[in-house]
Amino acid sequence: MKKILIVEDNELNLKLFNDILKYQKYYTDTAKDGLEAYKKIKNLKYDLIILDIQLPKLDGFSLLEKLKKEKITLPEIIIASACAMDSDKAKAKNYNIDTYLTKPIDINNFVKIVNSKINNSF
């Protein structure tokens, strides 16, 4: 079973992502802040990460930078953020992240993207 980490501090968004992915038969794990996500990514293997940018303790981009500096291999990442600024989208590309979804998400599109990322990860 494919394993997805959802990094999201908003309870409603976290529940929405979790419910959608479980319905699609994915195993999900969650982190409510960047520091918790960092610890999980460092110690566990995921097939995909759904990452918010605005997080407590360690924001999404700081998390990515920390993982990059430590040369931790990352799976596919989908950024799901309320920020739709071009500068954030450009910053995501610097981390080789080409999927940047703005909230609120389109559920059907989200499922299509997750399935394509998971199926192309091997």
Structural description of this entry:
The protein is an alpha/beta fold. It has one domain: Response regulator (Rossmann fold), CATH 3.40.50. 45% of the residues lie in helices and 19% in strands. It has helices at residues 11-23, 34-43, 60-69, 86-94, 107-119; strands at 3-7, 27-31, 48-51, 76-81, 100-102. The chain has a five-stranded parallel beta sheet with strand order 2-1-3-4-5, with helices on both faces. Helix 4 (86-94) links the parallel strand 4 and strand 5 (100-102). The longest helix is centred in the N-terminal third of the chain and has 13 residues, at 11-23. The protein is globular. The chain starts with a strand and ends with a helix.
TL;DR of this structure?
The chain is of the alpha/beta class and 122 residues long.
What key phrases describe this protein's structure?
globular, 122 residues, five-stranded parallel sheet
- Percent of sequence in beta strands: 15-25%
CATH class: Alpha Beta
Look at the helices and sheets and give the structural class. alpha/beta
Number of continuous helical runs: 5
Low-confidence stretches: none
Multimer state? single chain
The strand order across the widest sheet is 2-1-3-4-5
Question: Averaged pLDDT, please?
Answer: 94
What does the overall shape look like? Answer: globular
Total beta-strand segments: 5
The largest pleated sheet is described as: 5 strands, parallel
Q: Can you give the helix content as a percent range? A: 40-55%
Q: CATH topology, which one?
A: Rossmann fold
What is the CATH superfamily?
Response regulator
